[in-house]
Structures are given as C-alpha cells and as structure tokens.
C-alpha cells in the first residue's frame, strides 16, 4: 500500500462524522480539505446533540501541525444546525475551539514546544505569530487548570516574588506552591502581595484543599501571617529556613556596605573589597584564596566579621531535634546578637524573637517540610520571569508560569502517532 497523507491523517487524527476529501500542495502550504460525512447529521455546538441542518457558512481555515515543516491548514465550510433547544447555531467541529483559526492539535503541539523553547523561539521555528503561540498556551493552560486534581495536598508554601523593574506594589507576585515530597508545583499566582491577594489565592484553591492542609510555610511578611492565621489556623505554620537565612544574609550585607562606606580607604577597608559573595556563602563552602581572605577579615575585628560569625553560628539552630534545645539555642544566639551593637543583626534577632512560636514549628514539623522546596520553585520562577519570553502583559507571564511550573494535565494530544 502506498502511503498517502490522507492515510496518515486517518490514522493519527480521525474525526467521526468527517472525511478528508483532498490534500493539495500549493507553492506556500499544504491544504487539507475536509467534508462532512453524507450520512451523519451535524451536531449542535452547544449541547453536542444531533440536529437537522440549516445552512452552510463560507469556508474557514485552521492552522494544522506542519507536515515536514510545511505550513499546513484545514479547510472546511461549517454548517449551521437548527437545534431544538439552542436555535440556529454553528455545528460542533471537533478540531476547532470557538473562533480560533488554529486546530486543537496545533495548539497542543505549540504548547508542548513552548515549554522547551521560549514563545518567541517557538513562533520562529513553526512560523505562526507570537500571538498565536500565546493564545495556544493560554488555551492549553486553561484546559489544564480546569482538569487538574487538587487532592492530597498537605503542605503549601506561600511566597512573594519580585517581578519586572521598580518596587511598586504591582511589581510583586504572590505565589502558592504545593511542597509535598511527592508533588511540588505552582498552585496559584496573583498580582501584588497584600492580604487581599493571598485571600484570593486561598479561596481559589477551595475550602476542601485548605481544610486538608497540615503545613503552611511562609516568610515573616505580616500580610501573609495574618491571612494564614485566619484562614488556615488548623495547619502548622512554619517559618522556613530559606527565608530566615535570607534575612541573615541581607543583614550581613548591610553591615558590610555600611562599614566599607565608613572606612573608605586603608588596610582595613581593603579587607572588605570584593567580599560580598564570599560573605553570603556558607562558610564551609568558601575555599582557597577566598578562605584566606575571609580569615584575614575575621581577624581584623570588623563589624562585618562579627556579623558574619553570628550568621554562621545560626546554622547550628537547624540541626536540633528537640524543640526545647532549639529554644535554648535561640535564646543564647539572640542575646549575643542583641549585645553585638550591630544594628542589622539586632533587628534580625528581634524579629526572630517576636516570631519564636512560628519559628519553633520548624522542629514540630519534624523534617516533613523540605528546606529547599520553596527556594527551588522560586528559582524556577525567576528563570521564567527573567528569560526573554517577550511577555507584553502580566497575563502572558501568569500563563507561562502555570505552563512551566503547574504540572498541569494535558489534553489528549491527537497528533502523536504511536
Ligand atoms: Zn443544542
């Protein structure tokens, strides 16, 4: 048997009630004409019930998956039916979604590539417009969100992400992750980082999901603390290690900047030069020459050195198993920090003391919460928001985030052959 495009299409993508009538190669593209099966009645696009025909509309085009990377399209003249319930409406066309000039198969095809390439690259590789890629991914994501399952979610992480330029309220996103060991994904993203945003997010997940939560992980951001206490008070609220470490690092960095500003020149100022990243790293990970310089800095009796020591000793805190021993350590550490006369470190100490109860929940969660889950997902989000996807709107970015991090189910991709 000789392989024809029609054979291929019938094997990969057969639509009950329609036949592939003609396949033509024009100088620019492959045109595939479809026809309704003569013996089958058309179906109403609203209720999918068979209905008597009414009239025929002009021929329409839908972009199909390119064959040998030649642009390929479906041509078909839709019928209108007279449905008993819905009146005169366009028939149900299985490869089409509403008024979109692109087939479902092509939307799936583009969406799957848009996860590996940027949207712009996808558009360039398969030659639809950027807008067309965007709309396809959007449809794909909406389908996924409507069909995803939100069962068995025990731990969520709530965080804020900075996006774009500037520090306006609109430049922040609130994200909700699932951080269970078996499934880590983006559950929800919303604009701004206010109480209202988080309330909207939790409401979107639904009462059933919130009721089933055992752990909620977040930073000390006041707006979030309030909402979590009000809406998910039954779950153990944990301040996570990643954020505390971040606060300590920021404090050390502040001390370093202030001190090098104060010293300006001289031997001691030299010791602070180009040490920013070394100071922020974990002490055990600083090696070689950088390590020698770090030693030199510590011996110079600089505030930066003392702040760094405080930050490093705090790492022992996370090693405790017993809540009471960890509590004792925290008391000693904060005492030292408060006496250090280094304002940024004192500020962290005060913050830790005022959130002690939530901080101790880390030990009550007994290793059920992974320290790296929120951080890992945040990093992935940054890759998406910073990579030049050419997002023109917030909505496009939101779609891209769900698309890459939401682990959404996919509509059956009818164009795959196996
Ligand atoms: Zn109907």
In short:
The chain is an alpha/beta fold and 418 residues long. Helices cover 47% and strands 18% of the residues.
What does this molecule look like?
The structure is a single chain. This protein is of the alpha/beta class and 418 residues long. 47% of the residues lie in helices and 18% in strands. The protein is built from 17 helices and 12 strands. It has helices spanning 5-12, 104-116, 119-126, 130-147, 195-205, 207-211, 222-231, 241-263, 267-272, 276-280, 288-299, 303-314, 323-339, 343-354, 356-364, 373-386, 394-405, and strands at 18-25, 30-36, 53-56, 60-67, 70-76, 79-83, 87-90, 155-162, 172-180, 183-191, 215-218, 236-239. The protein has a 5-stranded mixed sheet with strand order 10-9-8-11-12, with helices on both faces. Strands 1-2-5-4 form a 4-stranded mixed sheet. A 3-stranded antiparallel sheet has the order 3-6-7, with no helix packed on it. Helix 7 links the parallel strand 11 and strand 12 (236-239). Helix 3 packs across helix 4. The two termini are 19 Å apart. The mean pLDDT is 88. The chain binds zinc ion. Zinc ion binds next to loops.
The helix-and-strand class reads: alpha/beta
Question: How would a crystallographer describe the biggest sheet?
Answer: 5 strands, mixed
Strand arrangement in the largest pleated sheet: 10-9-8-11-12
Number of helices, where a helix is a run of at least 4 consecutive DSSP H or I residues:
17
Please state the overall shape, judged from the principal axes of the Cα atoms.
elongated
Distance, first to last CA:
19 Å
- Number of DSSP E strands: 12
Radius of gyration from CA coordinates: 29 Å
Mean pLDDT: 88
- Strand content range: 15-25%
Ligands, ions, cofactors: zinc ion
């Amino acid at each position: 048997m000789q392989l024809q495009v029609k054979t291929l299409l019938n094997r990969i993508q057969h639509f009950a009630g329609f036949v592939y009538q003609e396949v033509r190669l024009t100088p620019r593209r492959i045109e595939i004409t479809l026809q309704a099966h003569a013996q089958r009645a058309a179906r109403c696009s609203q209720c999918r019930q068979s209905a008597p025909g009414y009239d025929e509309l002009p021929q329409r085009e839908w972009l199909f998956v390119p064959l040998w990377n030649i642009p390929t399209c479906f041509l078909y003249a839709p019928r209108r039916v007279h449905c008993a319930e819905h009146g005169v409406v366009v028939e149900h066309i299985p490869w089409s979604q509403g008024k979109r000039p692109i087939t479902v198969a092509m939307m799936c095809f583009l969406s799957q590539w848009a996860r590996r390439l940027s949207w712009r690259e996808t558009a360039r590789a398969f030659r639809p417009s950027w807008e067309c890629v965007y709309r396809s991914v959007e449809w794909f994501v909406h389908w996924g969100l409507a069909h995803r399952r939100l069962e068995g979610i025990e731990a969520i992480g709530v965080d804020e992400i900075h996006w774009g330029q500037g520090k306006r309220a609109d430049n922040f996103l609130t994200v909700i992750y699932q951080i269970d060991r078996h499934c880590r994904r983006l559950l929800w993203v919303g604009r701004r980082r206010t109480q209202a945003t988080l309330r909207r997010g939790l409401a979107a997940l639904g009462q059933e999901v919130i009721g089933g939560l055992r752990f909620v992980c977040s930073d000390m951001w006041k707006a979030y603390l309030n909402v979590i206490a009000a809406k998910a008070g039954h779950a153990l609220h944990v301040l996570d290690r990643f954020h505390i470490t971040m606060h300590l690092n920021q404090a050390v960095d502040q001390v370093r900047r202030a001190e090098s500003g104060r010293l300006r020149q001289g031997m001691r100022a030299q010791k602070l030069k180009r040490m920013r990243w070394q100071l922020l790293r974990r002490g055990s990970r600083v090696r070689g020459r950088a390590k020698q310089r770090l030693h030199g800095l510590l011996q110079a009796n600089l505030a930066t050195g003392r702040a760094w020591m405080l930050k490093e000793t705090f790492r022992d805190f996370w090693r405790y198993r017993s809540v009471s021993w960890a509590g004792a350590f925290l008391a000693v550490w904060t005492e030292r920090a408060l006496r250090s006369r280094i304002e940024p470190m004192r500020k962290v100490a005060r913050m830790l003391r005022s959130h002690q109860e939530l901080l101790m929940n880390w030990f009550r969660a007994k290793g059920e919460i992974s320290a790296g889950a929120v951080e890992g997902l945040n990093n992935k989000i940054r890759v998406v928001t910073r990579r030049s996807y050419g997002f023109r709107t917030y909505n496009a970015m939101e779609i891209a985030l769900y698309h890459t991090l939401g682990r959404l189910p996919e509509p059956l991709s009818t164009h795959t052959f196996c």
